[in-house]
Amino acid sequence: MRGWMGKFRSLFLFGALTMLLTGCGIENISALKPKGYGSELLFDLMLISIAIMIFVFVIVMAIYAFVLLRYREKKGQEHIVPKQTEGNKALEVIWTVIPIILLLVLAIPTVQATFDLADQSTQGDEGVLTVDVTGNQYWWQFDYADQEISTSQEIYIPTNERVYLNMKASDVIHSFWVPAIAGKMDTIPGENINTMYLEAYEEGVYEGFCAELCGPSHSLMYFKVIAVSPDEFDQWVEDMQNIDPEATPETTTAQEGQELFNNNCMSCHAIGGASAGVGPNLGNFANREKIAGILQPSKDNLVDWIVHPDEIKPGNQMPAELVSEEDAAKIADYLLELDHSDVGNDLEMQSVEE
Ligand code: CUA
Hints:
This protein has 8 helices and 10 strands. By secondary structure, it is of the alpha+beta class. The protein has a domain of 99 residues: Immunoglobulin-like (Sandwich), CATH 2.60.40. The strands form 2 sheets. Strands 3-2-1-5-8 form a 5-stranded mixed sheet. α2 runs antiparallel to α3. The structure holds dinuclear copper ion. Dinuclear copper ion (CUA) binds next to loops.
């Protein structure tokens, strides 16, 4: 009975681990497949610590096995008490010095990496990009102050360049994490600005997460890092700067949608230009990989989101049923026309939600 239960238990554990770990190797999401400077540094640290752990484990297990086999109680020796020893100086020194060496081997690159990742020496230099990041329940705002543009949910960066992030939160503590490119950094409400930098080696769409429990929709607070070539990045900036919030949409329903949007949504949102403040800037909405960071970009999903944001992302600030389903459909037509840049559209990503 016990044996059967044991087998069942390990089967269950194996199944649970399989489910849990399937996300670990996904391209552009995984810290185990580093695609940027920060994540590569952290991955190397992981390898060093795993190597040290394996080294210690193998040695300890080898000694353990040797002692078990060598000093077993043998037939006819049941009453022999082995020679008792204590205070072996050589042994004491060995098992004190070896861990110290191992810790030093671990500590030196760790401290080096910590300083390296906190380095800001080139911030503010000519041609070096800085983006202001704000964490909100449950979306991310990205302000490019020098370029006078603002976007949300998807941060565009040029490849193979350091992009500095100045980070804060508007409400509660969030944590900005793009496992495949960089480490993790908390965003904190108030005056405190945390900093880090991104440097992506390859073009691509990288999944980002909020890594600090921040409310009921914490686990839905996804964002994307879209890394494109420096030339394409310049093109994107130009496209974003050229967004005209007053431009007349093509279809009649979209025109009606624009009016409805301006009357109902503009007190929180913005289209193009500087940051919106309360809600996301939707200037490049139709270029987004996802609606609200989680839904596939379709009109039906968008209408659902506009009417029932509370059901899709519980606890978020967007009012539910502000407009009727019919009006929401017109607003959706308008938003889906906000297609101002082709940059990054050719990039695909594997996603955790699919
Ligand atoms: Cu924001 Cu968790």
